[in-house]
Amino acid sequence: MLQKGPRPIILCGPSGSGKSTLIKLLFNEYPDKFGFSVSHTTRQPRPGEEHGKHYYFTTKEVMQEQIDRGEFLETAVFSNNMYGTSKKAVEDVQKSGKICILDIETEGVKQIKKSSLNPLFIFIKPPSIQELEKRLVGRKTETNDSMQRRLSSAKAEIEFGETPGNFDLVVINDNIDKAYEKLRDFIMKESSQQIQ
Known about the structure:
Helix content: 40-55%
Largest sheet: 5 strands, parallel
Radius of gyration: 17 Å
Oligomer: single chain
Structural class: alpha/beta
Strand content: 15-25%
Number of helices: 7
CATH class: Alpha Beta
């Protein structure tokens, strides 16, 4: 793995915590300073998704061969589909001179902690499970079953996020502007690259 330049940044948190919104704000304010690590998946593309931009779409066979060759930093299986972050996806961002941002689940964080990547780990926490449920309901994308699974999973993720030593920073997203300011200030302070 490339270790030149600033450390990659991993954002982790339950679905509905606001990770995507915070990442979008960061990219909008600093379009030339950050690059997003594009994950691999074996699921089919959704309407509007592009190969190489939203995901690298692949097959289970090909991805398993790549995993067996040690080409991935972390992998997971959700709803019978494989997902993962390849070493090359992170290296591509680093080679472009940008700070690599990764959006990863807690299981992936555990795997990356065992790698040589040495990123900054940031956990995005919803203000409460009740607020998280409200946000997920507001998306209108969840069935009752999937909602219960997400909330159950969120409780375990929050517990992992609150465990001392697991993350360099925990941001409680109860106000998007305040949460973004805390996230941005931490990244600017920690980043070895001067961001203008």
